[in-house]
């Protein structure tokens, strides 16, 4: 059995590539890196890698992480600039016994020394988004989370090895140096090959408050199906945040266990994800929550066409 699951529609091309590797007895580490790099390299996805939306200073700062579920090796980078594939840098860092989480200038120095590709990650399209947002701010209250989607994945190969990884450009117009949940183990990602893995997307400041990816793996270890574990973790954290603070940000989680069974839960409308296993081709699903339970429906071709049309539509400065 093999399988791979990812947040958002934008991951389906990547997991399709990864599926070919997994079908041919490929390694879960190589497969998940391949899948995430495909998202990082596509400039029309404005929340990951090349084309990602910048911070308040019009700089693209990227976060990424990788975890090996066999060894618990972890690597992560945060607020790194001008490197093409942060997930690959994170994966390389997972081989280090110490210094496996690097930020900013330190992460960039390591990446340069290791020969990773330097690249200006700020695209013309992202500059237009930035300039339009600056004009909007002058006239109304900014909504900083618009257009923000982290790509997070969990992967299982035929040898039973599991991995989890994330990549994001973070919140649009964020403060310089801001880091969310994506590169933080236990919050943005977690995996144990003996149990399963999980990954998160949404408002990192709230996702971190529940160490929610670890919590889902813990619940699966206790015997819960991934779907039940995701729903319990999301519902419990949302309830707690509302009770303590009066509100909860966006919380969306994916998970897969070591049997290739998967689950997804969210507290928002319009969440999508992509999954492929030895038993099913790569499919994009749309999720909605009804009375605390999440229902998954395969996305229509019309929805898929509109998704790409919207993201690749011509963009003009206002």
TrEMBL record:
Xref: CDD domains: Glycosylasparaginase (cd04513)
Record Pfam families: Asparaginase_2 (PF01112)
GO cellular component terms given for this protein: cytoplasm
Record site feature (Cleavage), residues: 149-150
UniProt-listed InterPro entries: Ntn_hydrolases_N, Peptidase_T2
Active site residues of this protein: 150
Binding residues annotated for substrate, in chain numbering: 178-181, 201-204
GO molecular function: hydrolase activity, acting on carbon-nitrogen (but not peptide) bonds, in linear amides
PANTHER family assigned to the protein according to its UniProt record, in alphabetical order: L-ASPARAGINASE, N(4)-(BETA-N-ACETYLGLUCOSAMINYL)-L-ASPARAGINASE
Name recorded for this polypeptide: Glycosylasparaginase
Organism: Coprobacillus cateniformis
